[in-house]
Amino acid sequence: MSKIIKILGTGCLKCQTMTGVVKDVVSENNIDANIEKVEDIMEIMKYNVMSTPALVIDDVITIKGRIPSKTEVLELLK
């Protein structure tokens, strides 16, 4: 079953970097995942996240306000 990954952020450099890290991990490890970028501030507010970027995996907020390492993302997706 494919994971639903959402990256919450308004498109800032940190958000773009997090998107890159997540996409790399998914492709390098052949993970079945659907990656969505959520840039709409109203949509982000629904998650009650004040600091972006935030990483949401299957509707659970796993990381917020920082860029994770590839290792950390891989652990969260396992």
Automatic annotation (TrEMBL):
It comes from the Bacteria. Keywords: Disulfide bond, Redox-active center. Gene3D superfamilies: Glutaredoxin. The active site is at C12, C15. The keyword Disulfide bond applies. Pfam families: Thioredoxin_3. Disulfide bonds join C12-C15. Residues 5-78 form the Thioredoxin-like fold domain. PANTHER family: THIOREDOXIN. This is Redox-active disulfide protein 2.
